[in-house]
Design goal:
This protein has 305 residues and is an all-beta fold. It has 1 helix and 16 strands. The protein has a 14-stranded antiparallel β-barrel with strand order 1-2-3-4-5-7-8-9-10-11-12-14-15-16.
């Protein structure tokens, strides 16, 4: 599991990807310690032109919570809950026959997070999850995404944790497997390299370089790759079909810590090399178009209890 600050439990890119992984279990916890965190994110992607004409925009909200418990010095376990909704608006896209291929997307998720230290400096993780990702009106049984993340990390020093992971997921009717790198490197007192995004069905954890301006203010920037799929409703433009959004999110972050437990993260982002696809229920591509760059902003408020 990526070693993420609790403030990134729900990040901008996490919302875009409609995927969530609980933060890695903190080092140094004693048996019986319980950690809980919650966050809410709002996002707006502005009007974006499609390559073949027309355009689209969308706005969304995501809420999430994570609870974990250190059972023994070696074993920790917890669970994650998340609900994500996106409201899409279209401007007569010719590549989709001038129709809106989808409107509102909902994606609740439930996940488990297991961690085991096989040695003082080595830790293994297993994070299975189940997500129902579909347009409003789509059948829940046909909107299922499920799978797991497997991770291994090594602590070289208090300032450096490095590892790798692999995600294996069934996304609607397509199998996906992807590797990703895990890193937590405190380069100096103010400079840090880490994973800004939760790994999950849509992709890995990405990389972000951040700099602490003061004890309360921090700036950062990074990116990753995202691809997510969702079931379409039966009475829509592609009845019972599959929608997909692929893109590379590049972002800049400005964060403010109100105290040790509460933080606000403001994001400005550009989603580049994007592609939207609507396929039939049998998986055959019906409509498709690309977009070169999509501007977006987001705000996350998070708290650790």
């Amino acid at each position: 599991m990526p070693y993420l600050p609790f403030t990134h439990v729900v990040s901008l890119a996490a919302l875009l990807a409609a995927s969530l992984l609980a933060p890695a279990f903190a080092q140094g916890l004693k048996p019986g310690d319980v950690t809980t965190s919650a966050a809410i994110t709002g996002i707006n992607q502005f009007d974006t032109d499609l390559d073949h004409g027309g355009g689209f925009r969308w706005a969304g909200v995501q809420v999430g919570a994570n609870v974990s418990r250190q059972f023994t010095p070696q074993v920790a376990a917890g669970f994650s809950l998340r609900y994500d909704t996106q409201d899409w608006r279209w401007d007569k896209p010719p590549a989709f026959a001038g129709r809106a291929p989808w409107s509102r997307i909902n994606a609740p998720l439930v996940g488990l997070n297991l961690s085991y230290a096989i040695a003082p400096d080595w830790r293994l993780g297993l994070s299975p999850s189940v997500e129902w990702s579909g347009e409003s009106g789509a059948r829940a049984g046909d909107s299922l995404n499920y799978g797991a993340l497997l991770t291994a990390t090594r602590t070289f020093s208090p300032d450096l944790v490095v590892g790798f992971g692999v995600g294996v997921f069934r996304q609607i009717d397509e199998n996906k497997a992807f590797p990703f790198v895990i890193v937590k490197w405190q380069i100096s007192d103010r400079l840090r390299l880490g994973n800004p995004l939760p790994a999950g069905p849509a992709g890995g954890a990405g990389l972000e370089l951040s700099y602490a301006l003061t004890d309360r203010w921090e700036v950062g920037g990074g990116g990753s790759y995202r691809s997510y799929r969702f079931r379409l409703k039966d009475d829509g433009a592609v009845p019972g079909g599959i929608g997909e959004n692929r893109f590379i999110p590049l972002f800049a972050r400005l964060s403010y810590s109100f105290d040790k437990a509460t933080r606000a993260d403001f994001y400005a982002a550009g989603f580049v090399n994007g592609k939207l696809t609507a396929s039939s229920a049998g998986g055959h591509k019906v409509y498709s178009d690309e977009y070169g760059s999509a501007p977006a902003i987001g705000l996350t408020l998070s708290h650790r209890f």
